[in-house]
Every structure is written in structure tokens, then in C-alpha cells.
Amino acid sequence: MDKDLFILPSSKVGKDLTHQMRTISALQPFLAMLAGDSSLDVVGEMAVALLETPSFDIAVEHLKGDPGSAALIEERYMALPHDLHTLLQYPPDSLGYLYSMAMKAKGFRAEDLYEKIPIYSDASYVEARLGQTHDIWHIVTGFGVSPAEEIGLQAFHLPQFPYPLAVSLLSSSMMSTLLFNPEELPTLLNAIQTGWEMGKNAKSLFAQKWESAWEKPLLQWQKELNLLLY
């Protein structure tokens, strides 16, 4: 028997090794989340670890199936940093005003979620844009920032496109809740169900240039995007 039959091509070995290294790099933050650490640093580490995986390539290709999302990815559209002070000048029922009020109340900055992500590929662009608009998605879907509602928003992503970070956050949160806070499991599962149903019925949120219509009333956005609030 030819012993060369058992020798893998160097390219195959290299690919396998690269895949294994990426898997290992994703496991560390996943285990931290499993233990209950949901800090921005850990979630950001998880997001970066997933960028070069086949799963993220699949997510990008899924998004490209929607014309609006495909156009944003091709353009690599990123809005200027959100000026919360200026947004307060819009009408009180507008997306811009309500978003600014919410961000100021929580002491959040959208930039904290994406400013350290270099945009060098379609996948990295998608991750950066999702970071820039994450809290806008909170406003338009009606999900708050409690642990269960955050996971509900992550569940919203999945019928829209198979976002790897959302899968990681859902799976780690369910297991973490099961192990450490089992009494909260029904609340978490209800939030996941609500997010899934909303995401399935809604139009693509990724495809929106929210910042070009800050003045539009929130209710109008929700009606146009078929966001059924439960």
C-alpha cells in the first residue's frame, strides 16, 4: 500500500490547523460567557474570533441575498458617529430623539461596539455595522437591555440571517441560566420566542440606513418594517 496515500496535502493541513486555531480562540470567550460574563470585552472578543470562520461567510452570503443589504455591504456604508446632542433637536416621536434619550439615559456610546473593529472584509464590515446600529435595533424592536431582553434581540437576528455571535450568545445564555439561574429560564425562553417571531415577520433591519432618516417617527419605522411588538 502506498504510504503517500496517508499524507495530507500541505494546503489541507494548513487549512485544518487554521480552523482549529480559530475554534480554540472562540472557545475561551464562549466559556467565559457560559460562566456568566457578558461584559463588552468578552462579547467583543467572541465577535472578533468568529469573523474568520465559515459560519460568518455563510451569514454574509445570506445577507447578500437581500438587495438592500447587499448594496450596503458593497458600499461598506458606515454613518458618522452618532451625535446624541444634535439628535435631541428632532421631534420627540422621532427615531433620532428616542434613540438619543435612551443612549444618554444608559450612558452608552455606539462607538464602543465598533470603533476597534478594522473593516477589511465583508464579514468585518457586517460586524462593525451591526455594532454601530445595535442600540437602534433595541429601540425599533422594543427590546430593553435586561439580560433576557438582550438575548431576545439576539434571537431576532437569526430568522433574518444566521449571525454567528447571536448563536453564541443564545447558546451560552441558555446553558448559563440553566446552571446558575434556573428560575429565570422561562423568562429567557419567552424572550427568545418573541425575538424569533418578530425577526421572522420583519423586513431586513440590516438593510436600513437609519441615520439618513433620524427624523422619521419611530412608529412609522415599525410599521414600514413590519415590526410587530409583542
Shape: globular
Oligomer: single chain
Please report which band the strand proportion falls in: under 5%, 5-15%, 15-25%, 25-35%, 35-45% or over 45%: under 5%
Q: Calculate Rg over CA atoms.
A: 19 Å
The total count of helices amounts to 11
- Care to count the β-strands? 0
For the sheet with most strands, the description reads: none
* Average pLDDT, all residues: 90
Distance between the termini: 65 Å
> Low-confidence segments, ≥5 residues, pLDDT <50?
1-8, 10-15
Give the proportion of residues in helices. Answer: 55-70%
SSE pattern, N- to C-terminal? HHHHHHHHHHH
Structural class: mainly alpha
Describe this entry's structure for a reader.
It is a single chain. It is globular, with a radius of gyration of 19 Å. The model is unreliable at 1-8 and 10-15 (pLDDT under 50). The chain has 230 residues and is mainly alpha-helical. The chain contains eleven helices and no strands.
Which terms would index this structure?
0% strand, 230 residues, disordered N terminus, mainly alpha, single chain
